[in-house]
């Protein structure tokens, strides 16, 4: 346990080193937040209460999305390219020799990364957004806390997805194709381009059931108080938790299968 | 030549290339699906019809795609400055800019150009415009000058990487962000933002100003009407600025020595 805590702290510190990159990221998130906000204003001007969101809710949604891009890995988890590269070059054999579990190791490092991104790239764009636009803010500390729990669960689901994507490199060696498809799925089905509750009919229903919904749509709805009462909130957490468990398990199974293969082939 | 090398290396895996080309097309197409979804809910956005928004999207998408195809690799230059592998390029007897631009030249980026053209053709079919010879000529001019302006912004951003290697993402907010911005009508944005992309970073000349003339709509932010024809001039000025910054960047370059 102590070991993994150290790894997590290392992940935090490692990303905290790139201060210029963080500042550049904050700038980019803010610019995109501004552009998206104006398109949403135009859309909600024409159709107030679209998708059950008021204008204030929709604007809050934009900035939550910008804040969570790196935290919940909407456009890439931030570690999978490195892991795929290690698998491709064979460095992974060294990692497998270590007396630690591969998945837990990367999970801990990613937890540290997420925590840093939340502070480094999440808080500032959201604060800027709140200054420029009037948007919905949680009614009390309880709501903020519930939101943070949903974000944490979302970031775990995100890790599980990207880890599974990286594992595919054991068989495909070149992870670029799978990476692009996963990127496409994340971009569209996380609700980053447009809230999932605005998606029409069956497409919307499907999108809200897929794991990517836990990365942005669910945390945003928790923030906006769309889950009335404790049971509905618990249901939302359960949705995220189930996907986290299923995908984590799948990643573990893929890892086990890959490890056997590596041993047979000698790495 | 360097680009040719990367094309050959990509073509070694033809099926993989076909797959990435298709996904590249799809990734950009999802952008447009969002606009389709929006118009599933509303009839107009900021007073613009679907065909008009598609026209704006198609013109900027094609220009940006062309710039990305030729100059998109500049984004990764920060890494080369950081790890010192830029030195290899400096030793070769070819202009540095051409080499960096062709670095990992990805032909799959053609997917973006194809998608832009696809939407543009779609828009042209739907549009109800009284075409005049001037408007017809304005269309290719807009695509070429737009690509040059986007390309100049990319070079300018890459020049900054000589000093701040980690700041590649700032350029994205002007290129990718600008592309998103220009895909929507200027009427929906705050006037300060519109003025910013006319006078500060002249992205409005990529498509907004000429496109609004083609659509027969007034220019935004109190810009005079003749500005619709100023894109070539703006493109030349952008190139001059970017070229100066690039040379200053090379002069100040110190290898990491690692």
From TrEMBL, chain B:
Superkingdom as given in the UniProt entry: Bacteria
Pfam families for the chain: ABC2_membrane_6
Keywords for this protein: Membrane, Transmembrane, Transmembrane helix
Cross-referenced InterPro entries: ABC-2_transporter-like
Keyword Nuclease assigned: no
The keyword Transmembrane helix is annotated on this UniProt entry: yes
Name used for this protein in its record: Transporter
Gene source species: Streptomyces venezuelae
Lineage, uppermost ranks: Bacteria, Bacillati, Actinomycetota, Actinomycetes, Kitasatosporales
